Amino acid sequence: MKAVLACILSSETKSELRESLEELKELVRAVGGKTLGYLYQKRHSPDPKYYVGAGKAQELKEVVQGIGADCVVFDAFLTPSQVFNLEELLGVKVLDRADLVLEIFSRRVRSKTAKLQVELAKLTHQLPRLYGRGKELSRLGGGVGTRGPGEQELEIKRRAIKKRIEQIKAELEDIKRQRREQRKRREREFGEVKVVKVALVGYTNVGKSSLMQALTGRETFVEDMPFATLDTKTSAKFLFPDVKILITDTVGFIRKLPPELIESFKATLEEVQEADMLLHVIDISDPDWLEKVKVVQVILKELEADQKPTIYVFNKADKVVQKEEDIRLLTEPAFLEGKSVVISSKYGWGIDQLLKAIKEKLEELVEAKTA
Fold first, then answer.
1. CATH number, domain containing residue 34
2. Highest mean pLDDT among 98-112, 128-142, 217-231, 269-283
3. Are residues 322 and 231 both part of a single domain?
4. Does 198 reside within a domain?
5. Residues 144, 269: one domain?
6. For residue range 90-143, what is the model confidence (pLDDT) as tens digits?
7. How do 243-249 and 233-240 pair as beta strands?
């Protein structure tokens, strides 16, 4: 996959545009592709036919042919007709941001639940685009007032997709019921031991999995790329004798997250909604960290989880300072309200301070629960 990236510059600044394109480039890399270049256009709103204007679309065609690209990736969510028109004009595969994210998810998920959720998201994304192929398939035949074989084949595909979507939704509802029962059983089994649920949340590739490993000792897959791990994992840890915390690592968030994914991953993100406390993990070495915090906060608000007790965990301090004692020199956490801790999960720096902060927050929660 040799891609050209394309987008429009409307209300964003050029620096925001660059950041978004860099992220898109990383998504292309995550599916094994290579970015050859990019093209953008200043305009107030997308063109309904080509997303970019007709003249810029023609320029894009010349760029694609000139550098030998076999794919164009748009940093946006395209309509079915836009995809169809662009592929007709450019003569190469056209993808949008949703296509890339869904492809990464489909390649990396392992559990049955996550596979079902990704399949549901892909089918939901695919269905309207299938409707957009009606004109093309109708050319296969058929007289005036009759359906050609292409349209009949299309209708069969539509019905099959709709049926599969309903099946998946029913299976996911069963899984959600089973998880609720499992949570109730866990709480009964712990008896006198108080159980507190903690969820790790944050932008993708901030080091949530490595933090999970540092806190619980549980081996997890850690890789420096977007969405390295997608399956929800829960581990237990005693911080003091009568309180057990269940720590859950959740899927990373991203700006312009496909709406199909938010909807289909409700079963996974339910762990966030059920949590007593959140550890919001942030990459302190990322110059764009504050904007990414805002992205996560918006998604948490959509999940009605934005008011939960939260500790901001600034990770990857080893990329900013050379020694653990220099952590105290970092001032980034001062920009956020609420408790924050600077750590390096890679080297274990600041983990004791984080555990102390978790203990203090848990004591407040336990007191509130028993009051």
1. 3.40.50.11060
2. 269-283
3. yes
4. yes
5. no
6. 999 999 988 888 888 787 777 788 788 888 888 988 888 775 554 444 444 444
7. antiparallel
Tell me how long the chain is: 371
- Are 200 and 308 within one domain? yes
Range of the domain at 40: 2-98
DSSP 146: S
Please tell me the distance from the alpha carbon of residue 125 to that of residue 298, in angstroms, as a whole number. 22
SS3 at position 277: strand
The strands making up 2-9's β-sheet, listed across from edge to edge, are 34-42, 2-9, 71-74, 93-96
Q: Are 28 and 103 in contact (CB under 8 A)?
A: no
User: 6 and 36 in contact (C-beta within 8 Å)?
Assistant: no
Task: Write out pLDDT tens, residues 307-317.
Answer: 889 999 999 99
Q: Distance (Å, rounded) from C-alpha 161 to C-alpha 177? A: 25
- For 249, counting Cβ atoms within 10 Å of its Cβ (0-12 exposed, 13-18 middle, 19+ buried), the class is buried
- In angstroms, how far apart are the furthest CA atoms of the chain? 79
Is 342 found in the same domain as 260? yes
Local structure of 192: helix, strand or coil: coil
Q: Quick one: which of 155, 179, 185 has its CA closest to 267? A: 179
Pairwise CA distance, residues 264 & 116, whole Å: 9
- The answer on 356 and 246 residing in a single domain is yes
What is the reported pTM?
0.74
Q: Is residue 103 a part of any domain in this protein?
A: no
* CA-based nearest residue to 324, from 346, 352, 343, 339: 343
C-alpha torsion angle, residues 360, 361, 362, 366 (rounded to 10): 100
| Tokens, residue 305 | 């989880």
Distance between the two ends of the chain, CA-based, in angstroms? 59
In the chain, the number of structural domains is 3
The CATH number for 198's domain is 3.40.50.300
